[in-house]
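Proteins fold reproducibly. Next comes an illustrative record:
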Amino acid sequence: MRSMVVPSLVLVAALAIPAAGRPVDPLRVTILDAGMVSQSLRITMATSGLDDHEAGRSAVAVSAWLDGVPIQAEVPLIRMPARFALDLDLAAGAVRIAGVTVGEFAPVQRFDENLIFPVEVTLRRGPYVATARRLVAIPLPTVVVPGYANELRGPDHALLAAFRRRGYRDTGPAQTVFWFAYPSLHMTFAEAAHELDAYVRQVVLPATYARKINVVGYSLGGLLARWNIAYDLDGWGGLVNRLALVGVPNEGVVMPYVYRNTPEFVPYAYMAHTQSARAMLPTFPFWRAGPGQPWGTPPDGGNPLLTQLNARSIPAGVRLSSFFGSMDSGGVGVAVDVRVFVFFGSLGLGDTGGADTILGVTGESGGAVLSYGPGDGIVLVASALGLPIQGGAGVAAFAGREIQRVDLGPVGHVSLLAAGAEKILAALLDRVLDRVETTTEAH
């Protein structure tokens, strides 16, 4: 019978094992925790069973098979503490207790994939032996890049809670998931992309022992990550292992154009006139003068930045997945002033439940009629997937690529991260979860 996948990254099997031919003794050791702290693998353990007055030499031996590299070290102990931690400094190849070097092993290079490996700790005290084993998973550090106006909404707590349930840490010295906050309303697209790179280089990588990262790019955030990868900014072409695109307007969205050209919403039009908003204008034909006319692009509606990005390839080593919402309006045309409230919802300032996704604009401002297509209320399904829209070219960078496509169902744009959290994590941790399930079945 298949076992259920455990909801965390760590499986525990702690055993007290007597040495061959000896009776069971009271010595016990338990691995309480094991995980990365900066460049060290920290193993925290508890011991019990023998008093200090009971004579016998004490030692602790630890072994791990980390990223295919065996680590073995044995440390003599003057006394056996009830609880202590061993730090395996992977870069220096040093074993430390309370900051004091007590052993060494061959250094291990920074890893570029999610890891899952066994750790074994053996205590010896005179004739007694006790062993504990634990299967440890260390995910690649994951950077969540939120979307437009993220500074007005803050982190998505439902998504971060899902990460924590899977064993990630979003605070502290062993942090493995990072929320990149940036002032999107006051930055150009290029400035935000460079700020993302600086954050990864200055905050994420120094806090971990990885040479690659995973990225969850939501909405505008996915475009920023794609930009850095496609243009190989500061080596991003070889930096990203998995890229999860969530509600990303790969071919832009019509709403900013409508929003800035609707007189009724002049007090809020600055949100559609920012440089970041302009970077999300459509690359597909979305305007026509009247019914029956061919679709085209208005003079003030072009987007050369996104058009150029979509023509650039993405390195084969980057594993892509795309998550999208798929509400369907049936394409019914509606006067512009009835549905323009949708943009508020994309900023977290209103409700997008049941909202339609704009596909095109027919007519001039003030009398224009909108047509709709399947999407999340902001981003069309076809835009999220890079498919041709109304005669447009689509995203050449996605053509011929293996992309995991995940339909999150009738979910509004602002709710995609929360609704898709477990599926996003499954894409980020596929190889780890596969091995966790296999190990669970074996037991």
About this structure: The domain at 142-431 is CATH 3.40.50.1820 (Rossmann fold). The chain has two domains: 11-138, 142-431. The chain is about 25% helix and 30% strand.
